[in-house]
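assembly run, all chains below
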Amino acid sequence: MAQVWAGACAINAWAASPLLIGSTQPLAFGRFAAGPGGTVTVSPSGVRNSSGGVVLVTTGSGSVAQFTISGDPSAGYSISLPADGTVQLANGAGQGMAVNGFSSSPPTAGQLSPVGGTQTIAVGATLSVGANQPPGSYSTSFSVSVDYN
Amino acid sequence: MNSAKFFTLNRRALKAVALASTLVLGGIGLVGNAQAANAVADTSAEVIVPIAIDKVADLSFGRFAANPSGGGTVIISNSGARSFGGGVVAAGTAGTSSAARFNVTGDGASTYSISITNTVLTHTNTIDTMALAVTSDLTGANVTTGTVTSGTLTAGAQSIYVGGTLTVASAKLAGEYSGTVTATVEYN
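ok done. output:
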């Protein structure tokens, strides 16, 4: 029995370095004119694009979300992003825009650095803009979770 | 006797192992819950007022006559001042000449591109034409060259002034010629 408990102790030691994640940069779709509507996409590489009649404005170029993960050196972990239909930007006056198609780099799993045990992940998504979407600032928050494999 | 006792011990050992396995599995479950980490990030977008452009003054060359021995030009500066080149002269009551003006409205201090195309004026007979090369600026200066290709709104507004050079052939058919100058603006 003593030997068996030694195995359990080894698992507790592995748990000594908790997995941490912190948001270091927001996901911003920047400034744009809605026109007849369309989408604004920020890719995990930080490139902003529009489709449909949405006109992007260079003043207010947007940004990709960034998170810093830390934990056990070289440990693998999984990344969970918001599901479609769960994130909606709102302007406080009853109008909203859906944020879907979350994607990250690395995509679904990452590995912490061999030295220091950290990694930065970037998260992008696609914003759906309605025709004649009322001008104004829209915002919300979303959550990303990570777990050791 | 001895061998039977040994067997009993063995069974106890097996039981102990099984129990320990359950504990270990429970331990893994706990660790998994404790290790999931979650972070919340802000996300935002800003929808701006659409850019719009309205004509507030037409580009008019007034009345003039072309010398039968040689054509020339009628020039309207961006401020609306008229001048002539070659064998073209003002005719009778000069008529109203003016530069075109467009008002652009949109968001704050946004920058935008401007495109104004050259065109032709067509006689009311729909056959005879005169070519128009446009000039433009953002101040309505008394200049007759150059075009502006970008602007910056101030408090969401700016004006574009358009003049041009009309090429008049000699012995041009008398009458009224008209056309359309289209100015296109787009956020950039």
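DSSP finds one helix and 16 strands in chain B.

The mean pLDDT of chain B is 82.

not gonna interpret more than that til we talk
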